[in-house]
Amino acid sequence: MQTFDLIVIGAGSGLKVSSAAADKGMKVAVVEKGPMGGTCLNRGCIPSKIIIHSAEIAEQVKKSSQYGVHSRLLSVDFAKIISRASNIVDKDSKNIEHGIIEDKNTTLFRAEAKFIGERTIQAGKNTIKGNKVVIAAGTRPMVPNIEGLKGSGFMTSDEALRLKKQPKVMTILGGGYIAAELAHFYGSLGTKINIIQRAPLMVPAEDTEIAAQYTKSFGEKYNVLLEHNAVKVEKKNGKFIVTAQGKKSSKKIISDALLVAAGRVSNTDILDLKKTNVEIDEKGYIKTNQYLETTAKNTWALGDIIGRYLFKHTANLEAQTVYSNAILGKKMKMNYDAMPHAIFSSPQIAGVGMTEQALKSSKIKYAAGKHFYRSTGMGIAIQDNEGFVKIFADKKTRKILGCHIIGTDASTLIHEVLVAMKNNLTVDALTNTVHIHPALNEVVQRAALNIEW
Predict the structure, then answer these.
(1) What single DSSP character describes residue 95?
(2) How far apart are the first and last CA of the chain?
(3) What are 193-214's pLDDT values in tens digits?
(4) In angstroms, rounded to a whole number, what is the distance separating the alpha carbons of residues 332 and 290?
(5) E strands, 152-307, in order
(6) What gap in Å lies between CA 258 and CA 19, rounded to an integer?
(7) 347-368 pLDDT, tens per residue?
(8) Are 20 and 316 in contact (CB under 8 A)?
(9) Is 399 helix (H, G, I), strand (E, B) or coil?
(10) CA max distance for the chain
């Protein structure tokens, strides 16, 4: 049995800990079945944003006549779009693997990790033990228990990002951010989209007003069945037939492809954690304290597998905290303040802090401001007629409690709010800052100016 100073399970954000530890001269093991780079690089944010950029170009071509530019989308080289993303991702992943192998202080085990004892892991044919262990093994797509789904040939987001041929019609089960982004990609390139969503709104975790506007916009482009459950899947003559059950009636939806985007599930079941003292919660995520320590001695966890925020930027921040605590021995609490998110769909969404429904349920005394893109100079220029910004502040302290944006470049516009929130500034930091006129970010300032105290 080989012994290491540190074992890191997972080659996504966990590599930030392993590489930094190796740089300090520690003997490090990385256990990853592959490919290197984790979910974000291989099956998530990077490939999805590469292909979504193609969808955004296609959408602009279709809308060009609004701006006096007459053009039409002649064709889509779907295979080229997918291969471009795959080639970029695969090259980066191989470069990461090469870097790990070349590091004299790091040993890579290309295998699935399973605990067989306290900080003792079976990695393929190898048994290894770590003085310290970091678990960063991520999540995988959740597959619901639907009659006929198993073995039907459905795909998850993993396969959807590498599909070789564009389907004419696609049915998507789910209405969260993965469904929203992939529907935008395929739909903008010409695939007819059906969405079966259990909730009364798409992206229901968002601020309700944001989710309502998004649902309205999506419903104008695609066939969205709200408050419907997929209860049965059949495959006949190469076609998927999904029975969608509503409150009063059921419908049969026929398509060439079926995408399951019903959320994510923790990979803790694969790790066989019952062989160690690492406890998990009722949803299968690893329990950690404010220092990201697990319930097992000298064992930390980070990233999606702890279920706090399933974002790459969160995992990277957690990796910094784990590095400080596990490697440097400097106690550092994990700080999730002003943790943002974005949905790269059309329209785009970004959010940080509390939603209005959360503020109301918590009975927090807040003041709200709102401003539409169409009431700004740049909003008029780009003809974003539906986008808006909502911002909330504490009535007494004027500290920003949350901000939610739907519309063009939402993921970029929200950053001035993030800086203010992270530095514990009041809403006055936004209102007193001179904004370039008529840049689009005036919409954020005006939302803050519109707060009704």
Answers:
(1) H
(2) 66
(3) 999 999 999 999 999 999 999 9
(4) 8
(5) 169-173, 192-197, 223-226, 229-236, 239-245, 250-255, 257-260, 264-266, 299-301
(6) 39
(7) 999 999 999 999 999 999 999 9
(8) no
(9) strand
(10) 70
Q: What is the pTM of this model?
A: 0.96
Give the number of other Cβ atoms within 10 Å of residue 171's Cβ.
27
> How far is 202 from 223, CA to CA, in rounded Å?
12
For the chain, state the CA radius of gyration: 24
Task: Give dist(CA 103, CA 112) in Å, integer.
Answer: 21
Locate 358 and state its tokens: 């959360």
DSSP type of residue 305 = G
Q: Which two three-digit tokens encode residue 270?
A: 């694969």
Q: Tokens representing 379?
A: 């909003």
Structure tokens at 371: 């401003």
Instruction: Give the SS3 label for residue 155.
Output: strand
What one-character DSSP code corresponds to residue 444?
H
pLDDT digits (tens, 9 = 90+) for 233-258: 999 999 999 999 999 889 999 999 99
Report the DSSP beta bridge partners of residue 128: 2, 121
Q: How many Å separate Cα 85 from the centre of its chain?
A: 18
Whole-angstrom CA distances from 335 to 133, 291, 315 are: 21, 9, 12
Q: What backbone phi and psi angles, to 5 degrees, belong to 30?
A: -115, 125
The whole-angstrom separation of Cα 216 and Cα 68 is 26
